[in-house]
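>> received
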Amino acid sequence: MKWMRLAVVATAPAFIACGGGEAVRIERDALVPFASVPDRMDVESNPATPARIALGRHLYYDTRLSLDESMSCNTCHDLATYGVDGNPTSAGISGELGGRNSPTVYHAAGHMAQFWDGRAADVEEQAKGPILNPVEMAMPSEIEVMTRLRGIPEYVSAFEAAFPGDPNPMTYDNLGNAIGAFERGLVTPSRWDEYLAGEEDALTPDEREGLAASLEAGCQACHAGAYVGGNLFQKLGLVEPWPSQTDPGRFAVTGEEADRMMFKVPSLRNVAQTGPYYHDGSVTTLWEAVQLMDTHQLGRALTDDQIRAILVYLEALTGEIPTDYIVQPEPFGL
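>> returned
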């Protein structure tokens, strides 16, 4: 039997039994950096009432939030395909491509900030950005958006129900709050959560072997928590400079030199379904994505067998799409 000592952040060293034809056993102390996904990701500042969630669901799917009525939030963040469109970068109403990959909206509400550069604090703020972005949905102003919605009687009633007691419920901020309330229910529980809860057999022996390889490599230093990421900014090219320095990352937001090439660490939940990868969508395969992390972030040289094992574990992070929750409603006013 072969033993490997793992240095795990914020916990005691753990041991893994592996090799010799025996199933991998991972000590529970090694799982301290992780947590199960919650049922919802609500916050007190935006109560997720049924009426608010229902309004947000309508708005999320409504193409009338774009200038030519051709795009909705779901266009680039397709909830039926794990919250992505599968493109390196997404095209707006004119066909012009955005500068960054559209990340999955699943679990985004649980992240410490939104967008690759963290320029929005939460999903409520994030939801308001693409609608007014001239390259994306291209609405000219908040006033134009709300004027369009006020012309649809069902929306007037829905905003009043979602924000009772508000003397002016039909505001652009409330639009963001409604979409945010809906997005805070976009979770995809998986066998990984069952494993974290103590069900050892929830992961197959091969998947546990891949988890062991991931822990040994040190991936949990950045990809931890309930979302296996999404909880810190990290420099891309921490050990070896990243091949492309075109996008300065968070530096473009803060102007601080320390933030150059800093990006939000993406969640690994559903990562096998949400390529292409990285902020620019330049990497098409998960194999290459792991190799690049190994070289540029960890300064290691994983073997093909280790990468193969890690990929098996990453597949186990694929969860169940909440098909009932994401049912597209009949559009208001049509």
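>> Residues 189 and 319 are 5 Å apart (CA to CA).
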